[in-house]
Amino acid sequence: MTILHHLDDATVMRYASGDLDEAFAAVVTSHLAMCPECRRAARLAEAVGGELIEACEPASLPAGAFERMMSQIGEIGRPDAPPPKQVARTVAGDVPAPLQRYVGNSLDAIAWRHIAPGVRKHDIALGSKSTGKLYLLNIAPGRAVPEHGHGGSEMTLVLSGAYRDELGRFAAGDIADLDEHVEHQPCVDPDASCICLVATEAPTRFKGVLSRLLQPVFGI
Amino acid sequence: MLAALSSFRPAGQDGTERMADIHKDLMARVAADRDREAFRELFEHFAPRIKAWLMKSGADHALAEDLMQDVMTSVWRKIDLYKPENGSASTWIFTIARNIRIDRLRRASSRPYTDIETLDMPSDEADGEETTFATQRATIVAAALSELPVEQREVIELSFNQDLAQSEIAQRLDVPLGTVKSRMRLAYSKLKSSLEALQ
Q1: Contact B119 A101 (CB under 8 A)
Q2: How far from B117 is each of A61, A65, A97, B82, B130, CA to CA, in Å?
Q3: Residue A121's domain spans which residues?
Q4: Does domain B148-199 have CATH number 1.10.10.10?
């Protein structure tokens, strides 16, 4: 899996600072599970956070704060951290580990809902605080999604198959990290379906009249 | 706004690296033996800074102290997840504090953030990452941060320390969102090139 399309640097910084809604955090962490280059970028951005904490003027703590905390830890016992799950590098067609809590561990077992010719969708439930939407799309070989701009930012991570649009070809592991100004018309490769994980901030706006009629159907 | 920035005083290059090495050793002692004295030293260094950091994010004294306890308790409990080759102690402790801030201060869900922290990703060492390098990175990042132009450091402090979304920063500074993003990108690429110069 050679990844050609990565996270925008501004997104890496947002991720590190903790400023990503659950929907976007799920897409970003799924990409990180697939992309060593962006993992390195995230670590560098997180080092910024570490240095900013180092640079804070220490606040005063009440005397005995450490002992009190340790006695509380003692009371609850000392459960060790769960042993880290050994995770192999995510390969094309796998469900990235951070996504498994949401959709299970097999793309073959996803329950799809038919929403338009050649397009199936699976909505992913998020915590009540999330303002974004998160879903999987399964688009048939050779299908084009109507040209659309975005009311807000949108992130698309390809999990299997590939599509092509004005920005290039996106295959497994590639992420399209787009802001509201980008308009694109993805077209899936002719030989296989494309399964993508998508986070959106606001309803996507389709451009053409016909496409706009389709929007309620798509719900994307 | 600028007054807030004056609080950023990096320790000297040598000081930062020496401290990062000391912390790395303390973390190793806690991980190996549940060494309480080593943990006390980490607590004495980090707890007052984490409390201060949480107060910058909008918590009052009592809440900041409460959340700081959560952070340090997690450090103790999750110590086996710390991998020195991935970053300095302060970086790892920051990620724990950040996730707790998302859950308890923002009252949003940090699930993807906390899920990824328990994943044992295959080491990227083959790509040139080593433990020594991780400590050096702390020094480089501290130095590069102190050299950033004021308007770039400002957006970084507003997001990392004061927990403002990029859109809120744009409103606060009365600039377009695109300007905030491009300042972030410029700051990030400056940090990245400082690191690359080292390799």
Answers
A1: no
A2: 28, 27, 11, 9, 19
A3: 1-220
A4: yes
Query: For B50, left (φ over 0), alpha (ψ -120 to 50), or beta?
Result: alpha
CB B97 within 8 A of CB B53: yes
Q: Is B30 on the interface with A (CB under 8 A)?
A: no
The minimum CA-CA distance between A105 and chain B, rounded to whole Å, is 14
CB interface of B with A, residues 121-160, below 8 Å:
121-122, 124, 127, 129, 137-138, 141-142, 145, 156-157, 159-160
Q: What is the pLDDT of residues A143-155, one digit of tens each?
A: 987 666 556 788 9
**pLDDT one-digit tens code per residue, B42-81:** 999 999 999 999 999 999 999 999 999 999 999 999 998 8
Q: How far apart are CA B154 and CA B194, in angstroms?
A: 19
Q: Tens digits of per-residue pLDDT, A34-86? A: 999 999 899 999 999 999 999 999 999 999 999 999 998 876 655 555 555 54
Domain B12-130 architecture: Orthogonal Bundle (1.10)
In angstroms, the separation between the Cα of residue A129 and the nearest Cα of chain B is 5
Integer CA distances (angstroms), A56 to A50, B47, B152, B166, in order: 10, 11, 18, 22
- ipTM of this predicted complex? 0.90
| Angstroms from A154 CA to nearest CA on chain B | 15
* CATH number assigned to the domain comprising residue A46: 2.60.120.10
Selecting from B112, B127, B137 the residue whose C-beta is nearest the C-beta of A29 gives: B112
